[in-house]
Specification:
heterodimer, A: 106 residues, mainly alpha, B: elongated
Chain lengths: 106, 42
């Protein structure tokens, strides 16, 4: 994940409290989603950014996951995400992010 | 899911862009977009 984005997320977590943040990803595949999710839940796996060894345990979902998609007005989702919903592997991304969320620190 | 949340949007150029996700969140109306970006890994 971009190093500057890690700094922003850390600052927002301190400002609002980690329980009040929700991270939404638009990653193109499960591998990319895993790295981003791991960074905001367990800490930066590349040991390069501000979230290195910082376990924020944030709620993190992909925009294509059912829990998120179901809350967005259908016409807006179609207009904004549209074709990508058919192209990307939503099932694989959901499975991967579920695994990361299960590791969230208590 | 969205109720009173501060949302961090991390879109990706090869997936779904940050702007598109932000528009979706704003359409829900119960959360605030605190930060939105589109990452690009090239």
């Amino acid at each position: 994940m971009d190093l500057h984005h890690q700094e922003v997320i850390l600052a927002l977590s301190k400002q609002h409290g980690p329980e009040n943040l929700l991270v939404l990803l638009g990653s193109p595949d499960a591998e990319s989603a895993q790295i981003s999710a791991e960074t905001v839940v367990l800490g930066d796996p590349t040991y390069a950014g501000a979230l290195t060894e910082v376990q924020l345990g944030l709620d993190v979902y992909h925009i294509l996951e059912k829990e998120i998609r179901s809350e967005i007005p259908e016409d807006v989702f179609e207009e904004q995400v549209g074709l990508m919903a058919d192209v990307l592997d939503a099932e694989g991304i959901t499975e991967t992010l579920g695994g990361i969320r299960a590791q969230k620190p208590a | 899911m969205f109720e009173n949340k501060q949302v961090v949007v991390l879109g990706e150029r090869d997936g779904v862009s940050g702007g598109a996700i932000q528009a979706c969140v704003e359409a829900v109306g119960t959360a605030t977009v605190a930060f939105a970006a589109t990452e690009c890994f090239v």
